[in-house]
Specification:
Elements: H1 2-28, E1 33-38, H2 43-57, E2 67-74, E3 77-84, E4 89-94, H3 100-109, H4 114-134, E5 174-188, E6 192-205, E7 208-222, E8 230-246, E9 252-268, E10 281-299, E11 304-314, H5 316-320, E12 343-354
Parallel strand pairs: 1-2
Antiparallel strand pairs: 2-3, 3-4, 5-6, 5-12, 6-7, 7-8, 8-9, 9-10, 10-11, 11-12
Helix pairs in contact: 2-3
Length: about 350
């Protein structure tokens, strides 16, 4: 009786130990994916990464394969790269912090399952000799021991479901930005100094850039022989294309070409009042200009950016045959009438916000 009680107590203790041990193993199981960040992330993105880590910690190990998620900042947002233990790799670009967790989980759960299927098929084969060795049991005397039963063949693996499609080809991210810039310009000939305002919309197709811009010169002054400078104005509209080059972090440089149609208005004062033009004379000129620019882009959060732009443009027709103000008949001008500008160059500081 005492021996029976002892066996019951030992069996109960063993059962409790196994249960507790299993609980500890389950609780200490590490997440199937490790998250690594490269460089500093803005606060909103850092919070999104922590949310992804919490989601991964709650994901059952059977739902994914061990891998590493690498997250780094890009001009468009962040790039998430998933690398499996066998070298397979998938990549996504995320433009908003709210999509980080869903994208990361999608990458973790979309790794193909060939490795898991192979491991599951090999397990019964490895375990068969152990089962076969422990199979024979003591038989009653007079009965010949039967040969060990052959290890059962592993059940044929069910035809694998269609393998999860690999990561779709990364579509070029598309974004649109609208902005305003203020700056100054100089023009020649004529030694014109002016302030200019530019409104523009930029559309980014991956690293390529297309844009439309309107530039206004509300105030311009051209050098004159007297003390007072003569007024000058211009208004231009252009479209163009360019390329974005990424620098450190999310900083980038845009370069491009911008043809534009520009209307110029210039006035000159006469040295003395005259019957035909007592206050001076003025004229207008419309020219096609071709310009180039370089723009430094500095991010301000997720949806704003600051820019510093240097540009120059030229009116080809004014280079060879300068256009001048027509002097009415009978008006006496004691100095050459300055031509309309053939070349301008400027520097502007701007800010823009993301539309989509």
């Amino acid at each position: 009786m005492g021996r029976v009680l002892a066996r019951i107590m030992v069996g109960s203790a063993t059962t409790v130990a196994v249960a507790l041990g299993g609980t500890r193993v389950a609780r200490s199981q590490a997440p199937c994916a490790t998250v690594q960040t490269r460089g500093e992330l803005p606060a909103a993105w850092a919070d999104a990464v922590r949310e992804l880590e919490r989601e991964l910690a709650q994901l059952p190990g059977t739902d994914c394969q061990p891998q590493t998620l690498s997250i780094e900042r890009t001009p468009e947002g962040v790039r998430i790269v998933a690398t499996a233990g066998d070298g397979r790799r998938a990549e996504r670009t995320v433009r908003h912090p709210g999509a980080v967790a869903a994208t990361g989980l999608g990458l973790v759960m979309s790794i193909p399952v060939e490795a898991a299927t192979t491991a599951a098929t090999a397990t019964p084969t490895l375990g068969a000799p152990v089962a076969s060795a422990s199979a024979p049991t003591a038989e009653p005397s007079g009965t010949s021991a039967s040969a060990p039963a052959p290890a059962s063949a592993p059940a044929p693996a069910s035809a694998p479901a269609s393998a999860p499609a690999g990561p779709p080809s990364a579509a070029r991210p598309v974004s649109a930005w609208v902005g305003l810039a203020l700056g100054g310009r100089v023009a020649a000939p004529g030694s014109i100094t002016m302030a200019d305002v530019e409104a523009r919309i930029d559309v980014l197709l991956g690293r390529w850039l297309v844009f439309a811009a309107i530039r206004d010169v509300p105030l311009g002054l051209q050098a004159s022989q007297g003390i007072e400078a003569d007024p000058y104005r211009e208004l231009g509209a252009g479209i163009g294309a360019g390329r974005r080059f990424a620098l450190a972090g999310a900083t980038a440089v845009d370069v491009g070409v911008e043809p534009s149609l520009t209307v110029m208005r210039m006035e000159i004062d006469l040295p003395q009042p005259q019957p035909q033009a007592t206050e001076g004379i003025h004229g207008e000129d419309v020219e096609l200009r071709v310009g180039v620019f370089a723009r430094l882009v500095l991010p301000l959060g997720n949806e704003w950016q600051m820019s510093v732009t240097a540009d120059t443009d030229v009116a080809p027709s004014n280079l060879f045959t300068p256009t001048r103000i027509d002097v009415p008949a009978g008006v006496v001008v004691d100095q050459p009438v300055p031509p309309f500008p053939a070349w301008t160059s400027g520097l502007r500081l701007g800010i823009s916000g993301e539309l989509l």
